Amino acid sequence: MSTTPTTDDAAETEPESTLATARKQLERAATNTDVDPAIVERLKHPTRVQQVSVPLERDDGTVEVFTGYRAQHDDVRGPYKGGLRYHPEVTAAECTGLSMWMTWKCAVMDLPFGGGKGGIAVDPKSLTDDERERLTRRFAEEIRDVVGPTKDVPAPDMGTDAQTMAWFMDAYSMQQGETIPGVVTGKPPVIGGSYGREAAPGRSTAIAAREAVDYYGRDLAETTVAVQGFGSVGANAARLLDDWGTTVVAVSDVNGAIYAPDGLDTHAVPTHEEEPEAVLSHEAPQTLSNDAVLELDVDVLIPAAVGNVITASNADAVAADVVVEGANGPTTFAADEILEGNGVAVIPDILANAGGVTVSYFEWLQDINRRTWSLERVNEELEEQMLSAWSDVRAVVDERDLPWRDAAYVVALSRIAEAKGARGLWP
Ligand code: GLU
């Protein structure tokens, strides 16, 4: 089977699912490495995917049953690690694809974790705070056997936040009979969360953009940036890049984008956390559709909202020189090939937004050691870890003349394969 479908083939298979993209990326990555095919075969399959029913008593007394999942892809390098997502389109397959990306992400960053991902198929906006709390507590109970600080450590993802993690940690701890902060990361600092964790995926996305600009011999002061999504990833990335001297010309949320060719004051635009879905309320010379942001003629485009937004249908219209993936999986496999053909560099999610799980690792260390790190220390260590991963990936880009995603996969797969080789296949 061809691992590099032509654009025509790709167009036929659109829309691509997250799992399809993840599997094709792995197959393609395997052709760039001399990893034992038996190891690649093992990595195509998750260790387990837990599906649970989560009954919820609504505030009006009626009962509804939701479906929850926890996909555990691989743990050869350490406990499964990855977020919990509350979104109507969560499925077992999506969680599996996302858990594969977490395995590669942790390996690229050289963190002692494997990959997991889970969630509940629910629209969190349709729930009250009390309902979200009860749903989270019951979900924690349903997956209690498969999680734990040395087994599988969930974190926030789309539709979940620090409060969700606090409820999860409390429910788990109450049932285990002791306080166990290390069961989840992304908690509020007052119960063992790490300073800087919430801003970390946006910070690492900004660092990746900064390094890419430098790699291509440009100056930050002469760089224009467009950001799709103004939640924790997009807003933090946009504001940091703004602070570092770039001109952020457009930002968007689900309702659309604001565009200012001379640059926006990103600190004045309300983030999703500050005021949900209020980007358009900010005065700007022009408004655009959310899709149009992807086609702006900017130096750096940061898709930081949801997955599968750059597809075979619009990839040709991407006019940016560099795409930095703030979201997980914003570019389908087919779109990636089109971008590559058009000379657009794509800095992959598994490197760009890996600040989230990196600071999750710092949080886990703090929890296990019962120590608290200052924000300065967190940001310094994040910077160091990002630069080290960046330079590992850049070395493969330079030596092998590979695109950034392929190079990141080479780094990740080599580390995982080495670990699998050393441990062997049991029994
Ligand atoms: N959900 C985040 C991600 O996709 C963070 C995962 C974590 O911190 O474990 O990378």
From TrEMBL:
<dbReference type="InterPro" id="IPR054867">
    <property type="entry name" value="GluDhGdhB"/>
</dbReference>
<comment type="similarity">
    <text>Belongs to the Glu/Leu/Phe/Val dehydrogenases family.</text>
</comment>
<feature type="active site" description="Proton donor">
    <location>
        <position position="117"/>
    </location>
</feature>
<dbReference type="InterPro" id="IPR036291">
    <property type="entry name" value="NAD(P)-bd_dom_sf"/>
</dbReference>
<dbReference type="GO" id="GO:0006538">
    <property type="term" value="P:L-glutamate catabolic process"/>
</dbReference>
<dbReference type="Pfam" id="PF00208">
    <property type="entry name" value="ELFV_dehydrog"/>
</dbReference>
<dbReference type="InterPro" id="IPR033524">
    <property type="entry name" value="Glu/Leu/Phe/Val_DH_AS"/>
</dbReference>
<protein>
    <recommendedName>
        <fullName>Glutamate dehydrogenase</fullName>
    </recommendedName>
</protein>
<dbReference type="InterPro" id="IPR006096">
    <property type="entry name" value="Glu/Leu/Phe/Val/Trp_DH_C"/>
</dbReference>
<dbReference type="InterPro" id="IPR014362">
    <property type="entry name" value="Glu_DH"/>
</dbReference>
<keyword id="KW-0560">Oxidoreductase</keyword>
<dbReference type="GO" id="GO:0004352">
    <property type="term" value="F:glutamate dehydrogenase (NAD+) activity"/>
</dbReference>
<dbReference type="InterPro" id="IPR006097">
    <property type="entry name" value="Glu/Leu/Phe/Val/Trp_DH_dimer"/>
</dbReference>
<comment type="subunit">
    <text>Homohexamer.</text>
</comment>
<dbReference type="Pfam" id="PF02812">
    <property type="entry name" value="ELFV_dehydrog_N"/>
</dbReference>
<dbReference type="InterPro" id="IPR006095">
    <property type="entry name" value="Glu/Leu/Phe/Val/Trp_DH"/>
</dbReference>
<dbReference type="InterPro" id="IPR046346">
    <property type="entry name" value="Aminoacid_DH-like_N_sf"/>
</dbReference>
<feature type="site" description="Important for catalysis">
    <location>
        <position position="157"/>
    </location>
</feature>
<dbReference type="InterPro" id="IPR033922">
    <property type="entry name" value="NAD_bind_Glu_DH"/>
</dbReference>
<feature type="domain" description="Glutamate/phenylalanine/leucine/valine/L-tryptophan dehydrogenase C-terminal">
    <location>
        <begin position="194"/>
        <end position="424"/>
    </location>
</feature>
